[in-house]
Amino acid sequence: MSQVHIKTKINGDNIEFLCDPEETLLDILRDKLHLTGTKEGCGTGDCGACSITLDGKLVCSCLVLGAEADNSEISTIEGMSNGEKLHPLQQKFLDHAALQCGVCTPGILVAAKSLLEKNPDPTESEVRYWLAGNLCRCTGYDKIIKAVLDAAKEMRS
Amino acid sequence: MSPLDNTYEKQFKVIGTRPPRPDGIEKVTGKAQYGADLYVPDMLYAKILRSPHPHAKIISIDTSEAEKLDGVKAVVTSKDFSKFSDNKPSDTLVNCIAHEKALYDGHCVAAVAALSNTIAKSALKLINVEYEILPHVTDVDEAMKTDSPIVNKGYVLENVPKGFSENVTSYYEFGHGDLDNGFNNADLIVERTFKTEAAHQGYIEPHACLASMTPDGKADLWCCTQGHYNVRALCADIMGMESSQLRVTPSEIGGGFGGKTTIFIEPIALALSLKSGKPVKLVMTRDEVFKATGPTVSSSMDVKIGMTKDGVITAGEANLRYQGGAFPNGTVEMGAQSAFAAYDLKAVRTKGWNVLTNRPKQAAYRAPGAPQAIYAVESVVDELCQKLNLDPLEIRIKNAAKKGTKSSYGPTFDDIGLIATLEAAKKHPHYLAPLEENQGRGLSCGFWFNFGGDTCVTLNVNFDGTIGVTEGNPDIGGSRASISQMAAEELGISYDKVRTIIADTNSLGHNEVTDGSRVTFAVGLATIKAARAAIKEMCKRVSLIWGIDEDAVRWENGSAIPAGPNAGQFDPMSIEEIAAMSSQTGGPIAGHHEVNAEGAGVSFGVHLADVEVDKETGSTKVLRYTVFQDAGKAIHPSYVEGQMQGGAVQGIGWALNEEYIYGEDGRLQNAGFLDYRIPVASDLPMIEPVILEIPNPGHPYGVRGVGETSIVPPLAAINNAVSRATNIRFSELPLSPPKVLSSLKKEINDG
Ligand code: FES
Ligand code: FES
Known about the structure:
The complex is a heterodimer. Chain A is of the alpha+beta class. Chain A has two domains: 4-79, Ubiquitin-like (UB roll) (Roll), CATH 3.10.20.30; 88-156, Orthogonal Bundle (DNA polymerase, domain 1), CATH 1.10.150. Helices cover 33% and strands 17% of the residues of chain A. Chain A is built from five helices and five strands, in the order ββαβββαααα. Chain A has helices at 25-32, 88-95, 105-118, 124-130, 142-156; strands spanning 4-10, 13-19, 51-54, 57-60, 72-75. In chain A, helix 2 crosses helix 5. The longest helix of chain A has 15 residues, at 142-156. Chain B is of the alpha+beta class. Chain B folds into three domains: 24-32 and 453-597, Aldehyde oxidase/xanthine dehydrogenase, molybdopterin binding domain (Aldehyde Oxidoreductase, domain 4, 2-Layer Sandwich), CATH 3.30.365; 35-134 and 206-253 and 260-292, Aldehyde oxidase/xanthine dehydrogenase, a/b hammerhead (Aldehyde Oxidoreductase, domain 3, Alpha-Beta Complex); 298-450 and 601-749, 2-Layer Sandwich (Aldehyde Oxidoreductase, domain 4), CATH 3.30.365.10. Bound molecules: FE2/S2 (inorganic) cluster (2 copies). One FE2/S2 (inorganic) cluster binds at residues 99-104, 136-139 of chain A.
């Protein structure tokens, strides 16, 4: 089957790739572009480890076809920090020990950033519901929720 | 002073602080490399064909069409492994790839390596397997009956009592005292049968590896594992290799909880690499993780306990039947040992039977075997307290095991923190907080043995006086930070002067798997000893410089100083100065320590859970949850809390929703995160951790393992809370909404 030529902007850079029509955007990010910060925990939209934003919208990249990304702007975890400077969410995750194994962390950070862009002052329960699609098996979520609330507070001030 | 030269009463400078973890930035920026994140030139992608039948004889496998597909570079079946060894294939190999029979739904029968995942997937469809379907069994009680289908022959140990099918492979018994007499002295006896379903560890990272093997018998293997030395031993045995020829490098690991202590795919990748002559990457899908890795045992258990009116337990008895899949395992032994560990009993007896079924071979899951047995015991203790109108916390204190108690499984306890932990729970505001209608409070004790085991650590003093620690245990939850803290503490230097890395199998001697809550204890102990060896060498070098006796030099706050006024007048020499001169005083300085660590020190925990049950839907909401646990000494309190919180939430999931559901056809019905429902953020309240520190005499700083105990109490704590909220005694997990609802309806109908 012939491959499709796709043009995108990923973390601010113009990137083009060829993909099989059935390949997911997650496969492209990882296998073709080697942007492996985006993780695959399930491939079925149930864990959120593959969270990215596509034209500003939070999506599971395992549920998007590579071919669908034509002419779109994509942000992944690799684009979250600015050179040496971590995003406040990244810093707060370290300060609060909000990661144990860390494999859920990229997806949760991307999802949390998207929450704070929409709602800079979320309640605990709003954070919990927004992140309900991001599974973490290590932490019991406690420190993750605290880190997000603390980052939100810092970003507001 | 004890032989361990314990220093846990001193004032710590680094221990107990919360420094940033050394692998943190990589993990929040997406740079850390996990099992599936490595790509190498000319690499192939592999996929596995799995049996759709729970039990079937493999008549033939025709791979010729798959081999012809453009882009396919190798196909393997069990036949490809026979050339590596003349011995009977090990259980581990037969679990990785079916030989004569497929033993469970999802058992691997063949595998393909190709230029892309897409091609490998297409090739699987071209493999033709002819099966003869056999009768199957997936339920533990059914599998024990004499007329059950036999899953796997030839495993029955001699001491197994008669009267069961050949699926019952081993039998264990523990206890002491006169049970009849004990029950005669009771004012009330409660006897119940309990069931728990299998749960999965549910780590978010599926198993993944990348193998490169050459025809001269050498190989490199990269994989996510809790123990790369064990991966090497198992793979070398299967592949007929010498250990020295197989180098295993552990990736960062995306959770394990016991499920990554063994191998499932690594030999397949090695065989495909050898056959194709190229590196091969093999990554499991989530569906494969559920069907063909190592979930827990499921259980069926009878517990009988007698109590006097004033709350003294007079006798306890438990019969445990665990199934752990198609191959034997010893998990029920640990269940039988731990069932009554929290109690000081005159009469106690536990028995355990291991049973084979057509399910995947169980693997460890956090405190393997203990959550089930302790759930049953703690539920009966709570029921007795409720019926006798006694405070469940007081009664646990009254009967608690303490220093000098002969434990239900034999050994006599040394210093343990159970009573202190119970007292902390009693004093905590949570225990007396008011409850409303449809709400209930549950309580449970938990226990885990903790292990030590084979451990090697090397500690290098670099020429600039900084420290490189090399250890061999994959870091699942921040252990590199705590190891660096212990090195810094012992050397008297600051945390940021130490960097700890995890070495591959060729760089250090054997290290036991990251399991048994052993790493902070055993690797920590070896690190402290390695630091002491380096200190001894540094003092010796300084004695040469000062021209005094080695014994006349002492170590304090990161410097060598004269041991006393008689040693002479010298200015302290700092570690930087000693390191800078080391080339002139005899060469580079290092300390190392190799040990089979003993004295791990058991760990107890107590959990308090408040729930509210919705009587319309049967669903349970956890309102408040507090974890009390004895950590011995918390090296990095944030990561200790993390273990307590994470284990508690896994236990809550097991209690409320998680279960393996097998259909009549013997196939797994819910192999995905949508239908196998682990707790999500919106299901939970904050989990409050309360760390107790009752030093373990077996560790220089008093450390006890903390990783596993926390999953033990939630099962009974939730069960007791739901039972008290509804006034119905439940005895089957999970307490999923349909199950609770049907009991509520039955209760109404029965009036
Ligand atoms: S990998 Fe996309 S949601 Fe799990
Ligand atoms: S930190 Fe391991 S899954 Fe979240």
